[in-house]
Amino acid sequence: MTARRLTAALIAALIISGIFTFWLSRKLGGKTAAPPARQHYVAAARALDAGEALSAASVVMTEWPVSIPISGAFARPEDLLGRVLLYPLAGGEPILDRQLAPPGSGVGLTGRIPAGMRAVSLRSDEVVGVAGFLFPGTHVDVLVTYRSEKSPEPATATVLQDVVVLAAGHQINPDPDVKEASVDVVTLMLKPEDADRAVLASTQGTIHFVLRNGGDRGRTDSEPIGLSQLVSTVPAAQPLVRPAHAAAGPRARAYSVETVMGGKESVTTF
């Protein structure tokens, strides 16, 4: 009887414990955390290059938490189809309005020109083009070597400072894998007034590009330099000074010898 009672008590205890555990789990876990609300944005379907026009095949919809909104993102693909990318994008990256050229700006290089700016192409060669080290995105100063009516000697002046190379030849996208190469034409992104200066300078003489650090925004006020200023001034030849002769010393004392021979006298001086 005692064994039966113990067994019955143990079974009852297990049943009560199970019921309590089930009730407690329902009590504590009855309100499970709801999944975070999500929204959909338009993203790049693959790696996209700058200057590429967006199409239905180049975009996809991607999920994004509602609690972390993206400013400038698109919720509908039709809102950005046909627009041109200003910057390269990685696959799956949400597309933002600031990464796109304005609607109707065209494809290729025209789509990369911001509003209010101009693109001006200037002819270059291997030496003038910094030996092939000009790439899209680099910053340069523009110099011109010219002759004026006031002076027959050539002079060089800085025309523009800290301007961005928009394209080097036909290359409009920076590519770190591309080796340096000579280009015939360099396209600069300029303000309208600077575009006038660049065009005028190109008609007056030879254009030179001076490569500068991309983080250097400093400007200098320099005067044109002429050929005569390149030649060091040679000091006038100094007259040859011969050493003065030593002053003549005192004359040697003269000696006289008087000689008397047979009634004749003679005087000899030394």
Structural features, described:
With 270 residues, the protein is an alpha+beta fold. Helices cover 14% and strands 26% of the residues. The chain is built from two helices and ten strands; from the N terminus they run αββββββαββββ. Strands 3, 4, 5, 6, 7 and 8 form a six-stranded antiparallel beta sheet that branches. The chain has a two-stranded antiparallel sheet with strand order 1-2. A two-stranded antiparallel sheet has the order 9-10. β4 and β5 form a beta hairpin. The radius of gyration is 47 Å and the shape is elongated. The model has no long low-confidence stretch (mean pLDDT 77).
Secondary structure layout:
Blueprint: H1 2-29, E1 38-44, E2 59-65, E3 118-123, E4 139-146, E5 155-168, E6 185-190, H2 192-202, E7 205-212, E8 225-226, E9 256-261, E10 264-269
Antiparallel strand pairs: 1-2, 3-6, 4-5, 4-7, 5-6, 5-8, 9-10
